[in-house]
């Protein structure tokens, strides 16, 4: 993290020490305390004050360390049962332009450029489409092709059959609980889409 | 799910206030009381509609690394290999997908050097090749699920 005041341990200092910041990252990764003054609870845990904690989290959001701060939902539980990875073989010089178009469309949840792995894999642009069922995902893919003029681009759609394991990206693996696998061997093809 | 929970989920996926009384602040915009919001979030966590309530870190900014990797595994071996792969604590999630490359997983490590060594260990353990497909460019991340 930032190196500001990393030797300071006084609670009235404007910035938390490096060590307090580390402790704060660990303390919030499992979730914000469900308490009317959650940042005060955190301040007490790490030995800082409430305002320092608030400033620090704000800074992490501003500098991008925290990508999103809010609810993390279990999407299957809310009926989002289909997810498909849609992959495209885009001419290298067009990737930026097409990636930007896909971003603007609002029809995907993720869009990344990744390397080809020839000869087995010749796709270089990856999107995720989440939907309530397979047809909704396919509809959305068709809309995407129209909206972004992608009909001529070779692509493939990889629906998921079953999910074995899911946990959010955690900051420190030693602080995350062992992740129970959600796959039940007795229910072989749990159809997620 | 009632209308208020729906609103809570839609709105608080977008963000959460950072101030002394954030639940009170959020409750105001939802037209409910602070204590109502707190107890609703508690029960949504309890019935596992929510996995977590808090930050999603950008792991690369925190010095860590993520990658997407894939393998081609014969159907008869799939369950065995899935178990071997998932035993690695670096595996964040793992899906079987409809393609010749049929096992797709995300690896997360605390520092970027560990990606290659973890992949090597997975190959050694399973006997199958791992195709590493790290992110080269991010165009969009907008995981948002309206209900």
UniProtKB/TrEMBL annotation, chain A:
Keywords: Lyase. Residues 77-165 form the Siroheme decarboxylase AsnC-like ligand binding domain. InterPro entries: AsnC_trans_reg2 (IPR040523), HTH-Siroheme_Decarb (IPR050684), NirdL-like_HTH (IPR053953). Pathway: Porphyrin-containing compound metabolism. Residues 27-66 form the Siroheme decarboxylase NirL-like HTH domain. It catalyses: siroheme + 2 H(+) = 12,18-didecarboxysiroheme + 2 CO2. Pfam families: AsnC_trans_reg2 (PF17805), NirdL-like_HTH (PF22451). Its EC number is 4.1.1.111. Belongs to the Ahb/Nir family. Probably forms a complex composed of NirD, NirL, NirG and NirH. All proteins are required for the total conversion of siroheme to didecarboxysiroheme. Involved in heme d1 biosynthesis. Catalyzes the decarboxylation of siroheme into didecarboxysiroheme. This is siroheme decarboxylase.
From TrEMBL, chain B:
Its EC number is 4.1.1.111. The keyword Metal-binding does not apply. Residues 67-139 form the Siroheme decarboxylase AsnC-like ligand binding domain. Keywords: Lyase. It catalyses: siroheme + 2 H(+) = 12,18-didecarboxysiroheme + 2 CO2. Pathway: Porphyrin-containing compound metabolism. InterPro entries: AsnC_trans_reg2, HTH-Siroheme_Decarb, NirdL-like_HTH, WH-like_DNA-bd_sf. Gene3D superfamilies: 3.30.70.3460, Winged helix-like DNA-binding domain superfamily/Winged helix DNA-binding domain. Residues 6-48 form the Siroheme decarboxylase NirL-like HTH domain. Involved in heme d1 biosynthesis. Catalyzes the decarboxylation of siroheme into didecarboxysiroheme. Belongs to the Ahb/Nir family. Probably forms a complex composed of NirD, NirL, NirG and NirH. All proteins are required for the total conversion of siroheme to didecarboxysiroheme. This is siroheme decarboxylase. It comes from Alkalimarinus alittae.
